[in-house]
Amino acid sequence: MAKKPGTNPKGEFVFFDVVYDDGSQRSNRRVPAELLGGLDKDEPALGFIMEQDREIADKSGRATLKIESIARVGAKPEKMMKVK
């Protein structure tokens, strides 16, 4: 059954674009907004996305890809967080 419009809480998730070292990209990866902010800003998003990737890889039987960078959807390119 479909939800009524306006019943989905706004600001519950923050979306990120993820670029992997093989050049592939996954868009709109959801990260709970409560993990972000404070002194760490978007740093916790990387760990959350890496954990998601591990779970997906375990279920699919494929190896995880190394993340090259992540950026909030709609953020300016200079705000992209490069992974070391």
Give a written overview of the molecule:
It is globular, with a radius of gyration of 14 Å. The chain is built from one helix and four strands; from the N terminus they run ββαββ. It is of the alpha+beta class and 84 residues long. 6% of the residues are buried. Strand 3 (67-72) and strand 4 form a beta hairpin. Strands 2-1-3-4 form a four-stranded antiparallel beta sheet, with helices on one face. 21% of the residues lie in helices and 29% in strands. The chain has one domain.
| Uncertain residue segments | none
Q: Tally the structural domains.
A: 1
Discrete helix count: 1
* Distance from first to last alpha carbon: 44 Å
β-strand percent reads 25-35%
Tally the beta strands: 4
Helix-strand topology string:
EEHEE
Rounded to an integer in angstroms, the radius of gyration calculated over CA atoms is: 14 Å
Name the helicity range: 10-25%
What is the SS-derived class?
Answer: alpha+beta
Tell me the major beta sheet. 4 strands, antiparallel
Tertiary shape = globular
Cross-sheet strand order for the largest sheet? 2-1-3-4
Labels describing this entry:
single chain; 29% strand; 84 residues
